[in-house]
Write a structure and sequence with these properties.
The chain is built from 11 helices and 13 strands. The chain is an alpha/beta fold. The strands form 3 sheets. A 7-stranded mixed β-sheet has the order 9-8-7-10-11-13-12, sandwiched between helices.
Length: about 350
Amino acid sequence: MGFGHVQRSLPLIKRLLAEGASLTLVSDGDALVALQRELAGQQAVQFMSFPDYPPMQRGSGLAHYWYFFADLFDFARRMREEKALTTRLVAETAPDMVIADGRFGFRAKGVPCFLICHQIRQRLPPFLRPLQWLSDLFQLQLLRQYGRVLVPDFAAPDACLSGTLSHNWIARRLNPAFVGLLSAAQYEEAVRDIDLLFLTGGYLEGPKAEWQAWVARFAQAPGARRIVSIAGGRWRDGSPPSGVESYDFVTGRERDAFMNRAKAIVARAGYTTIMDLVALRQDAILIPTPGMTEQNYLVRRFPKTEIAGQAGCVLRYADLPAPIRAWRLEHSLEHILDVIGMGRSASRPS
């Protein structure tokens, strides 16, 4: 689901291919394009397009709540369609297992099903917070339908990134597998020749356009700087403003190179972005997307700051708990293989 989920799932996909697995990958839009680019030439991969969920938590004011309930019905309908598709694919291809990242309808009877999810609890918007208990009960019943939930974080509440999103009473009932962080980003020593790197991210077009307008204003401020923007979507008029070096839809090693070369990074506070920053050992200013309850919660776990009128937080790699800084991707992948039954002591299916 979405480009961020693709970024964090790619290491697992590539590891499964290295283990000799053959994969059917279901995604949509830019996320599917990114998968096809990263896995071009892989003979053991088939791609399938299937529509993503509606853009939850869009709009502002009263419209935000109207869209929230309207999108919930569309969300439920799409989940039913996902389940029907999974049932058909299981009947046609007889897979050894199903692994879903953020797509809650990809499950079927008679085959082990796993879900990658860091939001065991879905935080409701402020005015709906009294109904959080109802949302929690629904989430518990939904996640119980998977053989195991794989949480890309650490089990210790005092040394984790997701906080109460994954450490809560629902998790205690589910017994999820905390597998460590998942990130395709790779750290390397590089010349820091980019003064400021902006990462847009996100799937909501309104906040994305507002972010790009803010970057444009920032670029016009006095001072000689090299400013680079990875837009994640084109500028409204088709070209970036003067003073901004803009790149659209950068993936893989090229994206890593930009991030390793940056003296400073300003980004949206998506969970995948935070994991990428940890993998790259980078500091950053994180600014939550308006209306996104998950991002607004995540930034509150770090010291507050402000940049050019935007409120956010500062993520400092050196201040993170030692277990997070000691993390290595290989440990997470080995843990996942153990949980899904493909570890060193188990026979490895294709």
